[in-house]
Amino acid sequence: MASASIGQVHKATLSPSSLFYPHNATGSSSTASSLPLAVKVQFPGVENSIVSDIRTISLLLSGTTSLLPKGVFLDKTIEVFKQELADECNYVREAESAVRFAEELRGDDRFKVPAIVGLNASDKGKSMTTKNVLVMERMAGTPLGAAVKWEQEVRDEIARNILVLCLRELFHFRFMQTDPNWSNFLYNRRTRQIELVDFGASREYSKEFMDRWYLLLKAAVEGDREAGIEQSLALGYLKGGENETMIDAHLQSLILLGKPFSKEMAQPFDFAKNDIPSQIRTYIPVMLQNRLSPPPRETYSLNRKLGGAFLLCGRLGAKVDCRGVWEEVVSGYKLG
């Protein structure tokens, strides 16, 4: 079916009479026909190879740190990157994340999570899903890359639901699939569902962290610079000794992140005419030169996902009532 950097995906089918037939697959074992499967098989030795490659890159770059902007904080970046890759090499972890998403999204017909096959079998020697092999229900949707040619209302619906999912992951589940790659989302035009197919980059966030991040994003949405500084200090984005250039670049990038959800913005928000990720990128060189501490560990992947969601909405040319999404998903958030 497909090939990626750490493995390949193959087609298979599962008989409804199999002991491994998942109870939450489409249909049931008594009425369904053979279940289409997607089987992800990891390349042998890929995890050790990644560790070795990261070690080599780290050694090569360690001699050039004086040439890099002081705000890169290379050791911290490599540490986070190494842990994320290790997580993505563990298919049992990915399978468990998919099961959790299925539970979190139960009853929400806008989304479909594939059933996982053969996880935690009582006889471990007969498990189908293992650390290096992931067996899941094969989805029938179309990759979102094809959606750029679809009707405007369909593209708008997809974009709105992607944003709803992002905010629910943050403020309801505190558990987010942080890889925004288009190929991780399919759209089934028959069922009008977004099908989620990759969970390797799933991350959990503490309530304490999410309370702080909610207050920070709320400040950005409201354009409140003083609250933005206060929450940035509480989270560790700022230390307190930054120059005005750094503080302004940091706050401007945050306010851009909250811009689509602001009461001051005309709705629906036109992502094609407002390239938020590109605008944020203009502030990155300034922050890399003037930052006094690395960003909070949790935000590396979180910011990547939110930026990726905005980029996806832009490529779809979507127009979304983002303020309505904010009110629907976030307005009832409770601190503590």
Describe this structure in words.
Helix 4 runs antiparallel to helix 10, helix 4 (152-173) packs parallel to helix 11 and helix 5 (207-222) packs antiparallel against helix 6. The chain has eleven helices and twelve strands. The strands form four sheets. The chain has a four-stranded antiparallel sheet. It has a four-stranded mixed sheet with strand order 4-9-8-6, covered by helices on one side. It has helices spanning 46-62, 74-88, 91-104, 152-173, 207-222, 225-235, 244-258, 276-281, 284-290, 299-315, 322-329, and strands at 2-3, 7-14, 35-42, 111-112, 133-137, 142-143, 175-177, 185-188, 193-196, 202-204, 269-270, 319-320. It has 336 residues and is an alpha+beta fold.
Quick one: overall form?
globular
Helix percent band: 40-55%
Mean pLDDT: 89
Q: What radius of gyration results from the CA coordinates?
A: 21 Å
* Biggest β-sheet strands, sense, barrel: 4 strands, antiparallel
Structural class from helices and strands? alpha+beta
Write the H/E string, N to C: EEEHHHEEEHEEEEHHHEHHHEH
How many helices in DSSP terms?
11
The order of strands across the largest sheet is 1-2-3-5
Q: How widely separated are the two ends? A: 45 Å
How large is the share of residues in beta strands? 5-15%
Low-pLDDT residue intervals, each spanning 5 or more residues? none
Count every beta strand, where a strand is a DSSP E run of 2 or more residues.
Answer: 12
- Oligomeric assembly: single chain
